[in-house]
Amino acid sequence: MPDLVPLDCERCGACCRAQPPFGGGVFVRLGAADLARLTPDEAARLVVAAPGGGRALPLATDAAGQRVCAALRGDLGRSVTCAIYPRRPDACRGLERGSDECRLAREEAGLV
After folding, report:
1. Is the pLDDT of residue 90 over 60?
2. What percent of the chain has pLDDT over 70?
3. Could you give the CA distance from residue 105 to residue 3 in angstroms, rounded to a whole number?
4. Which residues contact 79 (CB under 8 A, 6 or more apart)?
């Protein structure tokens, strides 16, 4: 099946979308190195207490009503950016474009 949206991270954003059955309010748990990279303003605006302890980036609802990472800006499948991209968490840094995880996120978001 051909991709409906090119494999272009600045158009896609599927990896930043909470996939079903994910229903909690936390999207990415943050380690000490992740927290240290954020500016004080970013930490104050974006970081929340995670259930069971620790800190995390929460989910937000985008203009289309989808649950996405609070740091995501734009419209999935059209034009997206990460508000903290240079300081993004290790979990985000580890996800590679075109990987199995990437393809699964795109499929679940309806972009393939």
Report:
1. yes
2. 94
3. 12
4. 10, 11
* 54 touches 29 (CB < 8 A): yes
Integer Cα distance of 19 and 95 in angstroms: 15
Q: Please give the full DSSP string across 67-92, using - where no structure is assigned.
A: EEETTEEEETTTEEEETTGGG--HHH
Answer positive or negative: Cα dihedral of 64, 65, 68, 72. Answer: positive
pLDDT in tens, 9-44: 999 999 999 876 655 677 899 999 999 999 999 999
CA neighbor of 74 nearest in space, from 19, 26, 12, 18: 12
Q: Is the pLDDT of residue 2 over 80?
A: no
Say which residue the tokens 């059955």 belong to: 21
